[in-house]
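# step 3/5: fold
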Amino acid sequence: MQRLLIVGCGDIGLRTAALLLGRYRLFGLLHDASRAAVLRARGIIPIPGDLDRPDTLRRLAGMADIVLHFAPPRISPYVGRIAAGGVQGPELCDVRTAGLLANLAKGKSLPRCLIYISTSGVYGDCAGASVAETRAIAPITGRARRRADAERRLRKWGHDSGVVVSILRVPGIYAAERLPIARLQARTPALIAVDDVHSNHIHADDLARIVVAAIRYAKRGRIYNASDDSHLKMGDYFDLVADRFGLARSSRIPRAAAANELPPGLLSFMSESRRLCNARMKRELRVRLAYPTVVEGLAAIKTGLATSSL
């Protein structure tokens, strides 16, 4: 049985593991010992290690045939160079990925494939245009630039080592526990239609299925937009959630007023507009979405919540 290592055993990691259980021997990198029982209950063997301490990752060398890299980058005191714009600085480099790859490379054998979950934020603001994987990246935020750095490192490592590295560029993930309910309850405003941005979505269960499909079908060095078929503006998405769960819709404000009323983190999401094309994902990974749009996804979530409360 092939060995599969999950780096980043959060929500998506556990959902993916549930689909792979019995088909692979599952291992999970674990930096928080208190979660060991959670992983074991899901059929995952915990492997102690901390991505922020590369010296603790030595056990990963030669361990796995397949690596699923779901861990987000974080700011670390390392100076490097990213592909987008050649910007230099410690806040723009993903040393977690650098440390992981350095340790994987020490093994007598290398993984046959590595799947990385990145973000569609690497495209930057596309002014609402339809975006395929061939579009040049132009990340704006620090978090997107760090993801771009991780992508560059991974693709180069795959090219140099012969490991089949593929990247899933993921937009907003939603599930029962990942809805903007608190935002709606706090009455945080959205943008008026003329100023609003296009947003993209994927249900967490569909993303797990896409990962499984990528293990089997993804091509070497290939990038895939892991998005559903929804083409919504952000405010319309919030309205759909509000209507589905009986909450008041957000008020709408012009962009000129948003800087004074919205926190910087939320404002940054409202400054990038794009419509992801998922044709490559469907064609090459042979993915059939269980929830083609958020309409079906939200309906299933409400049904599931209602059933669980009985």
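# step 4/5: annotate
The first helix runs from residue 11 to 20.
# step 5/5: archive (pending)
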